[in-house]
């Protein structure tokens, strides 16, 4: 092999990657700088952007603080519900499926199905299940002698409705990831523990959990990002209501930007979203050294 | 996990009046297909199915072509700055899409692409870090001797790409293709932002209107939802195995 670049190779190489480079400049780099600039501007798409310094930041955190801080609180509550519940459900199912199981492929396929289904269809089905009078969930609550709940009409319960739907939707995907992780744990550890007479609970706590901790960490980080991006399903199910009780950050950005055309404010909110998501991820990474074990 | 799907199909096959009966029963006779007929005949329905299908097919074809040809260059051709350029494309995966939302909208509004399909198709084709990365990783593993042999046979780079690389890369191409098709078919947020006039509506947008329009016509609503999901389930059943394995691999290693 000669190490001189052939002219022909150089030409075709650049030709083949050129479309991606054009896209990189047009659809990533230019918008990125534009977004930062817009944060400091007053603009409704018409006329020229007006430089206003930090006004948008004051608007988002000050006057408008009411709804915006509410979206942050909503996101926090949804996160506290969705992240642990999804992790528990998907890990539990993966543990069940990791034994020698008949029809495993069928279960995998079934669990994964919500993931490939359109978010709008999912929200419509849950809208029906949560319906006040005829909905199946309230019917079952009634049969158990419990009071019917205003899942989509009562701000106290609407978040729970979103949480249930989202956990149902996300569990299958993370189940596949956990299952792949469990398959990777060497049998040798379990055999040694069995010789030592460890109970199945002990084996789970001392072998399985530490061994799959990198996978658990991956799931944890991804789920947090999922919640920050929550939009379609929740929007179709509740429209952010009642009384903004399920209004998420993405809905705020969507409404400010695309309905009221407060492009500066929407840009600031998107930056806040990214900074929040980024700092939580960073926190997760720095704390991970305490509990994630990597094979060396 | 499958129960909501079952409930959806069951409700879709019930006359609207029967869905209002109390208590709800697990199985309900007679089974009718009126709801499906009604959905398919409703204003703009066939058009939106066509629109969704068109966007998904064109996007998938475009993504597969432009990603695979770039991946071929990055894995098998030596050219200047290739490492740097690949790094730059890879890094776009780390940039959250939300930050680009507003400026992209502004740019598309200025070049009059709003209310056309172009904003929903073009960006993912021209910059797709995930697709390029996925295919490149696979192509790196294909022995260089194949390419040397093809060169001796007089094939140029286009020939090697089309006749040698593509046939060898079927598995990751199927994964990326299924992924792209499903993602585009389901794309609600993008369509909500960019499509204004009803003749351009995609299926998720029409369903979103349905959800408000047919508030108590549960059978009709569920028939709509079933129709939205149906093509995905068919594709998914065909590609299930390679698809799930692809996810488990990229998910854990990514």
Fold and architecture overview:
Chain A starts with 6 loop residues before the first helix and ends in a 5-residue tail after the last helix. In chain A, β1 and β2 (50-51) form a beta hairpin. Chain A has two domains: 7-51, no CATH class; 65-291, MetI-like (MetI-like fold), CATH 1.10.3720. Chain A is 74% helix and 1% strand. By secondary structure, chain A is mainly α. Chain A is globular and about 75 Å long. Chain B has helices at 3-12, 34-41, 45-76, 82-91, 98-110, 118-126, 129-140, 144-152, 157-168, 170-186, 189-194, 203-213, 218-253. Chain B has one domain: MetI-like (MetI-like fold). By secondary structure, chain B is mainly α. In chain B, α3 runs antiparallel to α10 and α12 packs across α13 (218-253). The longest helix of chain B has 36 residues, at 218-253. Chain B contains 13 helices and no strands. At the A-B interface, α1, α4, α5, α7 and α12 of A face α1, α3, α4, α5 and α6 of B.
Question: Would you kindly provide a brief summary of this structure?
Answer:
The complex is a heterodimer of chains A (296) and B (254). By secondary structure, chain A is mainly α.
Separation of termini of chain A? Answer: 36 Å
Structural class of chain A: mainly alpha
CATH topology name of chain B, in short, is MetI-like fold
Shape of chain B: elongated
* CA gyration radius of chain B, whole angstroms: 22 Å
Number of strands of chain B: 0
Biggest sheet of chain B, in brief?
none
Q: State the total count of DSSP E strands of chain A.
A: 2
Tally of individual helices of chain B: 13
